[in-house]
Amino acid sequence: MSKFVIPRRTAIIFCGLFFSTALQMNTATAVTPAEQYVERVGNSVLAAARAGSVSAFRSLMQRNAAIPTIAIYSLGPYRKKLPASRKKEYYALVTRYIAWVFSKHS
């Protein structure tokens, strides 16, 4: 029974060639609408992080996040105690807080 052994140097060269080829692929090759969406949102997140502004993150979240779902879920069992008349205010506060946290940690 013969063992087929790949020398370490050959394996490293192969991995290097494979990953360098993979890294050279253009990110603009997003084909499906889902890929295009993820690429667009990712680029927007990077731009907001570079800007470091709360308003950039806030507008990004308003365009791309399910704020009511996130906000209500975060209340847990207390969501039943949130009056309908204050939901809009609560959503705005959650958005503002998340945007502030993102801007401080970007």
Describe the structure.
With 106 residues, the chain is mostly helical. It has one domain. α2 runs antiparallel to α3, α3 packs across α5 and α4 crosses α5. It starts with 7 loop residues before the first helix and ends with a helix.
Entry summary:
This protein has 106 residues and is mostly helical. It is built from five helices and no strands.
Strand content: under 5%
**Structural class assignment:** mainly alpha
Number of strands: 0
Count of the separate structural domains? 1
Distance between the termini: 56 Å
User: What's the main sheet like?
Assistant: none
Structural shape: elongated
Low-confidence stretches: none
Write down the Rg. Answer: 23 Å
Mean pLDDT: 83
User: Helical content, roughly?
Assistant: 55-70%
SSE order in H/E notation?
HHHHH
Q: If helices are DSSP runs of H or I spanning 4 or more residues, what is the number of helices?
A: 5
Topology at a glance:
Layout: H1 8-24, H2 33-51, H3 54-64, H4 67-75, H5 87-104
Features:
mainly alpha, 5 helices
